[in-house]
Each structure stands twice: as structure tokens, then as C-alpha cells.
Design a protein that fits this description.
This protein has seven helices and twelve strands. It is α+β, with helices and mostly antiparallel strands and 300 residues long. The protein has one domain. Strands 1, 2, 3, 4, 5, 6, 7, 8, 9, 10, 11 and 12 form a twelve-stranded mixed sheet that branches. It is globular and about 50 Å long. Pfam families: Gp3-like (PF18897). One of its GO terms (molecular function) is hydrolase activity.
């Protein structure tokens, strides 16, 4: 196996809530109030739609604001990976990736150094150019066509990152760690803030599928988990394989993916970016404060 290459979940498509458009000679992100499912192929007009986009849009009656999904892993942090990321605007490569405690930074005699990470608000090295950046891999539907082929939602929305992290922790807790068998759906929500000048900001939430209660979803998860065990599916081994794969490389993104990431989330002008909403106070660690809150609730 190649050393230094992160082994990430197979991706068959993308989920976005915006698109990149050309305006005054610049390609800038434009917000939207619905999901779009695309393939991994681009043409002059942008990303080519995935066949599932039309199918789900037809079922939804037009605007696609919810997507039925399942998760690949039981471990919340394998499904959602969030970092503070600084991209080099010249090369498009990640220059520094951290979690608010430690970071991996290019440079120095050894190529990649492990250093303390103060977070984006107080980091003199990033000088304000570092953002929270997350990747969320899901199976659309029940994974009928490809049980391990995921769609990836990439986002710099702090509302999305915080909401998804909370939902994953809570669903994992109440289901007894059966995230991979919970019937869930992505749901697009909107809110207005003074920072957005009361214009709507859209973010992604994760809920149980429409028409069933949390208790029914947990019951279904237990039955499906038992059936998969009987069929020989070793979910713990799958989680462990994914964990080792992520740790095998310094950075998750392939170099061929980075230009599209930089274009969508790190343009020179970010007006109208649905995924990069106005800056809010960032936590010391993207998931640390959430986990502390969960622990306090449990202790109470």
C-alpha cells in the first residue's frame, strides 16, 4: 500500500446547497435554497447532475430540501471529519490543518510538522485566512446500488458543522452506537441573523426520516443491525479499516480535488456564499465543546 496516501470512503457524487457561477470574469459561489446532487464530472456549465438528482427532485415535487440517507460508519467522527484548514492560494494545497489543539503544517525540514493550533481567530500564521472545513459522507437512500459508494457534502458552514456533529453524537448515544443502521435524512434549514443582515442562511441538518418517530427509527436500527450481523457484515471491522485509512495520510483531499474546493469555499470574494456564512465565534475545538456539553447533560 502507498505510504502517505489517505484512504477515504469511495465517492460517487457530491451534495451541495449552492453552485459556482461566473460573474464579471470571476467564478464565485452562489447560494441556493435547495440541495443539488452532482456527479464528479464537470463541463463548461459546471458540475454534471447525478441521475439521482432528477429522481429525488421528482419525488419531492420540485425543490429538493430533504434527502433520505444512511451512514456508512457507527463512529460519528468517521462520518463527519472537521478541521480548521488554511489553503495555499497559489498551489491550492492545504498548507495547515488543525483542530484547535494541534495542527499539521507544511514546511520545515521534515515536510509536515505537528505544531500547537490556537484556532483561526488567534493564529498569526493564518492571518485570518483559515476556515472551519468539513466533509460528510453518506449513502443516498439505503445504498441499494452501491453499499459503500458515498455522496460527499463539503462545507465551511459553522452552523452545518455544529448541527451535524451534535446530531451524530446524539443519534449514536440513543441508538446504542447503531448509526450505520439508522434511517435518516438530510434536511435543509434556514435562519436569519444580524450578521447576515436578516437575509436567510441555509444549513444542513440530520434527522430521522419523515413519517417515523425517533423510537421507531431506533427499533428499525436494532432489527437492521441484527440482520446484517446474521448476514456476516462486520461493522466494527469496517469502522476500524476506515480509521486506519484516514490516518495513513497527512491530508484527506487529493490534489486533483483541491482546485474545486478552493474555488467553491475560498474565493477572493465570498458574497452570496451559502456554505460560508458570516463568521461566528469559533470554539477551541470543533467537536470538543459539543462533547463537553453532552457530558454535562449526562452528568446532570
Amino acid at each position: 500500500m502507498l505510504k502517505g496516501l489517505a484512504i477515504t470512503p469511495p465517492v460517487v457524487g457530491r451534495i451541495s446547497i449552492g453552485r459556482v457561477v461566473e460573474r464579471n470574469g470571476k467564478r464565485l459561489p452562489e447560494k441556493d435554497d435547495q440541495f443539488t446532487l452532482t456527479s464528479q464530472v464537470q463541463n463548461r456549465e459546471g458540475w454534471v447532475l447525478h441521475p439521482l438528482d432528477e429522481q429525488l427532485r421528482k419525488d419531492a415535487g420540485g425543490k429538493l430540501r430533504s434527502i433520505p440517507v444512511r451512514l456508512v460508519f457507527n463512529d460519528p467522527e468517521l462520518n463527519l471529519r472537521a478541521d480548521y484548514t488554511l489553503f495555499d492560494r497559489t498551489t491550492g494545497r492545504p498548507q495547515c490543518v488543525g483542530n484547535g489543539e494541534t495542527c499539521r503544517r507544511r514546511g520545515g525540514a521534515e515536510g509536515v510538522e505537528t505544531l500547537p493550533c490556537p484556532g483561526p481567530d488567534t493564529c498569526s500564521y493564518a492571518a485570518g485566512a483559515c476556515k472551519a472545513y468539513a466533509r460528510f459522507n453518506v449513502l443516498v437512500g439505503d445504498g441499494e446500488e452501491d453499499a459503500l459508494g458515498t455522496f460527499v457534502l463539503r462545507t465551511t458552514s459553522f452552523n452545518t458543522i455544529r448541527t451535524l456533529a451534535a446530531r451524530l453524537q446524539y443519534f449514536s448515544a440513543v441508538s446504542g452506537g447503531r448509526l450505520a443502521t439508522m434511517p435518516l435524512e438530510l434536511k435543509l434549514r434556514g435562519k436569519s441573523t444580524t450578521q447576515s443582515h436578516r437575509a436567510p442562511i441555509y444549513y444542513v441538518d440530520l434527522v430521522v426520516r419523515q413519517g417515523i418517530t425517533l423510537e421507531q427509527a431506533i427499533a428499525q436500527a436494532r432489527v437492521r443491525d441484527e440482520q446484517r450481523r446474521n448476514d456476516g457484515v462486520d461493522q466494527a471491522a469496517l469502522d476500524e479499516a476506515a480509521r486506519r485509512g484516514f490516518l495513513s495520510g497527512a491530508y484527506e483531499e487529493l490534489e486533483e480535488d483541491i482546485p474545486a474546493v478552493v474555488e467553491e469555499f475560498y474565493p477572493e470574494a465570498t458574497a452570496g456564499d451559502a456554505s460560508a456564512e458570516p463568521r461566528q465565534a469559533s470554539p477551541v475545538n470543533l467537536t470538543g465543546r459539543l462533547q463537553e456539553k453532552v457530558a454535562r447533560i449526562g452528568a446532570g
